[in-house]
Amino acid sequence: MSLSDSAADGGSPSVALIVEEVLGAVLSPRRVREVLDDALRLGGLGKIPQSPVSLRVFIEGALFSTLSRQLGISSALDVGEQLRAALALALRDESLRPQGPPARRDPRTRPPTAPPSEPPRVLVVSQASLVVFLLQDMLGPSIEVKSLTSESDLSDALRRGAARPTLVVVDRRHPCVGPGVCKLLGEHVPERSTVVWWAAQSDEQNDVEARMARATAQLITTAHDMDLADLGELCRGVVDLM
Question: What's the rounded Cα separation, in Å, for the pair 210 and 197?
């Protein structure tokens, strides 16, 4: 598939060529093609999306995942910010523009808080190890961040820490469980805990909110296009309140 095929969309600026130019500033032409092909496969797409919402989801989801594996999370965040800025300028769409410093801020510079008697833990139910790496980096070494890839893994982890305040992040951008896991969460998440249901579409958010209505844990559902940096900020705030 050629990049020009990905970009064809009437008289609007060529989104694919803008993406190619930004990636070409840090990658060779061959690597640009490899990264875009891998990202499109990961996102289940035949071409780079043209609509602002779908484009942002692609940049902050599949493309970010691919860049993180190849360049590291810090470089992937930088490239993603450059992409959003270039696209916002070319397409005159401010929704694509980076929203300020959170993605670049080093969260480890924040003032230390007094540790709780039972340090909270974070369970991340995701197929993407990069999500776990980013959250661990943002939350710091004093917080245990555990990667889980199945409902049975989650059940075992909840059972082993039944009295410990827990943040459960259910990743619906790189999913390995579905809404049915809400039954387990509603019955076994410890008190003083929070479930973040990340990046689901609005109909699924409504379904999950109904399923978790009687749970003792707090439920937070996020916008389907919330990026990883904002997810990290959210999780850090939740952990600080535990």
Answer: 13
